[in-house]
Sequence to fold (584 residues):
Amino acid sequence: MSDHEYIPKSKFGKWFNDRLPLLTLTNHLTDYPTPKNLNYWWTFGGILTFCLIAQIVTGLTLAMHYIAHADLAFESVEHIMRDVNYGWLIRYIHSNGSSMFFLAVYIHIFRSMFYGSYKSPREIIWIIGIIIYVLMMAAAFMGYVLPWGQMSFWGATVITNLFSAIPLVGEGIVTWLWGGYSVDNPTLTRFFALHYLIPFLILGLVVLHIWALHIPGNNNPIGIDVKKPSKDTIPFHPYIVIKDAFALLMFVLVFAFFVFYSPNILGHADNYIEANPLVTPTHIVPEWYLLPFYAILRSIPDKLMGVVAMLSAILVLAALPWLDTSKIRSAVFRPLYKQFFWILLIDVITLGYVGAMPAEGLYLLVARVATGYYFLHFLVILPVLGFKERTMPLPLSISEPVLSGSTNLSKESLN
Amino acid sequence: MSDKKTNRRDFLFTATYALGAVGVGAVIWPLVDQMNPDASVKALASTEVDVSSVQPGKTITVLWRGKPVFIKRRTPEEISEARAVKLEDLKDPQKDEDRAKNPEWLVMVGVCTHLGCVPLNDKGDYKGWFCPCHGSHYDTSGRIRKGPAPTNMEIPKYEFVNSSTIKIG
Fold:
């Protein structure tokens, strides 16, 4: 919260604010001191908020026409596409919206990794973010099941069967999740209920995420602590608001391209075939945003260990603030970490690519090497690097390198 | 006031917490158990299948409890191949004699034990089944030979009602 006590000007405002300090909150949000050197990678928080709201609004309207029943779901989705006024638009925004949401969240996560935003004192922000990310995956998976196409059905079968890898109680858990002896109507109805619930859980966590952010304030491309408010900060409104709005506009252009010009390019043709429990599609793959983890699952030739590796790949992220032992936040001042960051990014994209390919021959070999490197990065390279790396000297303030023309900074940090 | 001695108040606290925990558990259990298979799902427990038209070497697939069940009429070569396999070569050792009471008929749940896909007939390195999802190979007895699946395909409870009808479940 800002240091000064806010007093509304109007008499009614003062009366209201004494009873519920909403105006104090609004004032905090507009005056919120923000580092003046934030670049466009910092606009994805706002973009993600937009994505969440867009998913909730389109999801709510779709739910007015969708029927969660194994015999009717597939038809009701086609009904939305063909008969409901603007149904095609709302559904395409919703289905492509999930891809856009994940695109933005991956940029947001990798931005945190590059600039060390997860480090002290921002660990809780990071962990809440990871929980949001896991919930997003759950919501996306369950949403993909609702149209009750072939990919829906078999995706649901494969993912729920992951739990059967748990020793002793696994089979019981899977039967419990299904509400039967296979994925069927009871599974569909509960997935619909949970798919409706999770976005609101995410919304609540987003509030906590932002609350936790507003305690220390934003990290910045240089990654040094900023005195606030000072000449190193600018108020959130109007400076950051206008920058976020411009970035959002650019993002919506990309979004609109997918919705209007290639609404099915990120989907899978098999999902326009109604679910058939007797035939598995010859090549089943999850949506693109889950492919890296799918590749890790398939790279291990043992059922339980494959599942353990896949879950560990996600959970290891939560431990990142403690695995990265370096005190320097920004990769700008960490010449070695910067290189490992890009290698990790290539590694994850490689995993995503092989995850979409059949698990055999060279693809399998590449998947295994990339899986090994993924864990090597987090469990060995990052902890060791903090002790071995020779970092570059940090400037004293955000303004210093600009005012003194210091050569301490590489070009990109001056953006 | 003595620090260590337990008194009536400690007893009351403990008793209250214990009773509270039982109460919370009693409320949560129905909410958890409602997700388990309901009475109507359990009622669909058995299926009868007429197999008189199945030719040797062919497989039919029927739906039982929402899952595919393979009924394969095996050829003599397939039977002898399945029976010739040494138990040491198997990941989940099981004799073919134990899997097919009547060697001509192999009845099993057509679900890959890895992650639940339906394997393809007459495919794979062991001429039995091949799962397209993650590449598990099964032999002519439905036993796992290669790939990530941990166990053989499941044999359901079944019986021959007469020479041409199988009752599954």
Notes: The radius of gyration of chain B is 25 Å. Strands of chain B lie at 47-50, 59-64, 67-73, 105-109, 120-121, 129-130, 137-138, 144-146, 158-162, 165-168.
